[in-house]
Amino acid sequence: MSIETIVKEFAAVAADPKAQLKKYKAEGKKCIGVMPYYAPEELVAAAGMIPFGMWGSNNKTISRAKEYCATFYCTIAQLDLEMLLDGTMDLLDGVITPTICDTLRPMSQNIRVAMSEKLPCIFLAHPQNRRAEFGMKFCIDQYSHVKGELEKIAGAPITDEALSETIKLYNKSRAARREFVKLANDHCDVITPTKRSAVLKAAWFMDKAAYTEKLAALNAELAALPKCDWKGTKVVTSGIICDNPKLLEIFEENHIAIAADDVAHESRAFRVDAPETGDPMTALAQQFADQDFEVLLYDEESNKNRRGEFVADLVKQSGAQGLVLFMQQFCDPEEMEYPYLKKALDAAKIPHIKLGVDQQMRDFGQARTAIQAFADVIAL
């Protein structure tokens, strides 16, 4: 199968998640909505159900959700609730609501109330001190709660054997996505920013075995190509999410390729594997404990600006000339972190721009001007 054909198949899934949801339901499968961030999808898959990512939408307007949400909630959270209220997600058999940030905590309760007569809502609280023994125990307890609720929906127990095999499958999928990100950098003439985004986005809506098999085929085709001699600009992207095709097309208009990313919706989601030996529930808790360099998680050594330096090093190691930060509107963790991130980038002499974005953006005139000017500055 050609690169173009595989990418088109991924793009079709990314562009129409609802069609994918209908497909799985027609096959008799149960689907569980999974909101950001770091929910243990492996538990859903081990129960024989399909985890279905919920990261808002670029094609909807917030209306019904306004009855439940404060105006300063980020659009990802508001649009997730909007899709639950307007029927877009009616085919789901349940939803997992993690509570890592100050918006997701109250949002979990908004969803629980709004969906009380429609579908089960599974509350998930991650530990702040995730590496300490008590943090690990809390995480296992929370994951056990999620496991129990999923078993009720599935109508069958989640065995340790099934979970261990699912962890191996997910590690394989994460490795394939990490490999794809590297190959996309080597072949940015073929994998444009919009195509790169579509391939990674499709993972949130596909059975992981099928997705990983298709991605492995794409990786093999890309690896067989000679590395491209890119004459344009390369950047690293950072932020919560940057999946809007119209915004990414501006990169292509200005001959900007994405060398790597520090995006929660993309590489941060598959950066860390779970151990494949021992108790599988402990392995999932260990995976969360091993997450690092993440603006949304507590860092005991934040005074050292480890994350800012990590992002700066990522730009250097990827061969990029600069960084584009997609700042999600009303995202307090990102806004508070920015001065420290800027400090690390400035110290490393890495040019960057900060673009305020949300998923209800329809006019990209200012973004186009900023990105074009940034590309011109780097070229000079």
Could you explain how this protein is built, in words?
The model has no long low-confidence stretch (mean pLDDT about 95). The chain starts with a helix and ends with a helix. It contains 14 helices and eight strands. The strands form two sheets. A four-stranded parallel sheet has the order 2-1-3-4, with helices on both faces. The radius of gyration is 20 Å and the shape is globular. α4 packs parallel to α5 (about 105-115) and α12 (about 305-320) crosses α13 (about 330-345). β1 (about 30-35), α3 (about 40-45) and β2 (about 50-55) form a beta-alpha-beta unit. It is of the alpha/beta class and about 375 residues long.
Task: Give a brief outline of the structure.
By secondary structure, the protein is α/β, with parallel strands linked by helices. The protein has helices spanning 3-15, 17-26, 41-46, 75-85, 104-114, 133-154, 160-186, 193-202, 208-223, 245-253, 280-290, 306-318, 332-347, 365-379, and strands at residues 31-34, 50-53, 94-98, 121-124, 233-239, 256-263, 322-328, 352-357.
